[in-house]
Design brief:
It is a single chain. The protein is of the alpha/beta class and about 425 residues long. It has two domains: about 220 residues, Periplasmic binding protein-like II (D-Maltodextrin-Binding Protein, domain 2), CATH 3.40.190; about 200 residues, Periplasmic binding protein-like II (D-Maltodextrin-Binding Protein, domain 2), CATH 3.40.190.10. It contains 19 helices and eleven strands. It is globular, with a radius of gyration of 21 Å. Bound molecules: beta-D-galactopyranose. The site of beta-D-galactopyranose has 12 residues, from strand 10. Beta-D-galactopyranose binds next to strand 10.
């Protein structure tokens, strides 16, 4: 993690309004207008794995190309899912020393920053550039809070993908059928175990990996509509399907590598592709990571949507916001946001990241078969938002969930899990 004493205290106090004032003119400035190369931009994110770093560099190169002489400080903080990065960011926001832009999930997590008065209103930028019409309605809506835009999307990830090792499965004579639901999956995994292999690779050193596994099971058991109703308090964590999901989760955890809490999400995905186990549940950033590690799709690894009755797309959005106050380099931040919306940048980013572009005009014809399938599914499946990634609900509720999963991993106490989540439904939603 970046040490706080490394943080630069900016003397520039630039309100969001002056960013908006810079909007429009900066796009028309000739390249090289930032004379002397003194222009800077500091970006924070949690993109530090091989594929994440490469994908982030596509964005950094993109903004540099749009603004000659710009120096970009990539202040990424490691830790998959971003809890370390968000902690470091919170300290900076508290100290009044924000970066120029930071990574954020839309909807729930974004709303927490809006409620805290920490992110700038970008509605004027959106309107001027007519961005809403350039992306699916679901995506545009997720970037809003109370009808105003506060973030800019770079891509759409799917959280509920089961990555599989074809050789390990075929050795155990197992074929995972997504339509077989969670019961079918568990019996397949037990068959793998009986054949002498480790069924599941998990890397929950950062707790989001197991939070996401449990959420995939709950979605499959309860269905997409009930999942959505959790967050409007019309469906309870006390429901029988959730209880069943907790039992399933316990079983699946017992079929995983014993060192799961010592390894990271990307290590677990690579272990699966290397043949150490049969399956790994992970968002499709794992696709980017496996390809980055020179694994061959279809040969070294394959994929199915996490088994269930419906085709559910667990949407995990990535984007960037800028601070409401004390922005150090407003004009460069503006150029950054515009770069993110460049269709070619979105395509090139997706190629490294495993996501699909957020803008409809981005060309996906050169992206992988997996991504073509994901794009189709995003248009036709039931799209829900991830809680493990604080999109379905605000940061506080998502943290309660992460903590409850962590405790459950140790205790296996379903009643305690349900009690803390039902309490949070009453008080934190
Ligand atoms: C998610 C993010 C992804 C990926 C993942 C693992 O929160 O949306 O882009 O980076 O964390 O770090």
């Amino acid at each position: 993690m970046r040490a706080p004493n490394k943080l630069k205290i900016s003397l520039a106090v630039t309100a969001a309004a002056s960013l908006i004032a810079a909007t429009g003119c900066s796009a028309n400035q000739p390249a090289g207008s930032s004379a002397g190369g003194s222009d800077k931009l500091e970006i924070t994110s949690w993109w530090t794995s091989g594929s994440e770093a490469d994908a982030l560099n596509v964005l950094i190169d993109g903004v540099k190309a749009s603004k000659a002489g710009l120096a970009v400080d990539n202040a990424a903080v490691s830790g998959g899912g971003g809890s370390n990065a968000r902690q470091a960011l919170a300290a900076r926001l508290q100290a009044g020393s924000p970066p120029d832009s930071w990574q954020v999930h839309p909807a729930g997590q974004l709303k927490s920053y809006v409620d805290g008065g920490q992110v700038a209103d970008l509605t004027e930028l959106w309107t001027q550039n007519d961005w809403a019409s350039q992306m699916p309605k679901d995506v545009a809506e997720a970037q809003q809070v109370n009808g105003k835009y506060y973030t800019v999307p770079i891509g759409v990830h799917r959280g509920n993908v089961l990555w599989t090792n074809p050789a390990v499965l075929s050795k155990a004579n197992v074929k995972i059928d997504p339509a077989g639901g969670v019961d079918g999956l568990i019996s397949s995994l037990k068959q793998v175990q009986a054949a002498g292999a480790t069924p599941v690779c998990l890397g929950d050193k950062d707790i989001f990996a197991s939070s996401q596994l449990l959420e995939s099971i709950i979605m499959s058991r309860a269905g997409a509509d009930n999942w959505k109703k959790i967050f409007t308090n019309e469906y309870s964590f006390d429901a029988p399907e959730v209880k069943q999901a907790l039992e399933d989760y316990k079983t699946i955890l017992s079929l995983a590598n014993k060192d799961h809490s010592a390894i990271t999400w990307d290590e677990a995905s690579k272990k699966m592709a290397n043949g150490a186990c049969a399956v790994n549940l992970m968002g499709d950033w794992a696709y980017g990571e496996l390809v980055n590690a020179k694994k061959k799709p279809g040969t070294d690894f394959a994929w199915v949507t996490f088994p269930g009755k419906e085709d559910i797309f667990d949407y995990v959005g990535d984007g960037f916001s800028i601070p409401a106050n004390n922005i150090p380099h407003a004009e460069a931040a503006n150029a950054w946001l515009k770069t993110l919306m460049d269709p070619k940048v979105q395509t090139d980013f997706a190629a490294k990241k495993g996501s699909i572009p957020a803008v409809k005009s981005a060309d996906i014809s050169g992206l992988s078969q997996y991504q073509q399938e994901a794009a189709k599914s995003f248009a036709s499946a039931k799209v829900v938002s991830s809680l493990a990634h604080a999109q379905a609900a605000g940061a506080e509720f998502a943290q309660t969930y992460a903590d409850a999963v962590s405790t459950f991993n140790g205790s296996g106490n379903a009643d305690a899990f349900i009690a803390s989540m039902t309490q949070a439904q009453k008080t934190q939603l």
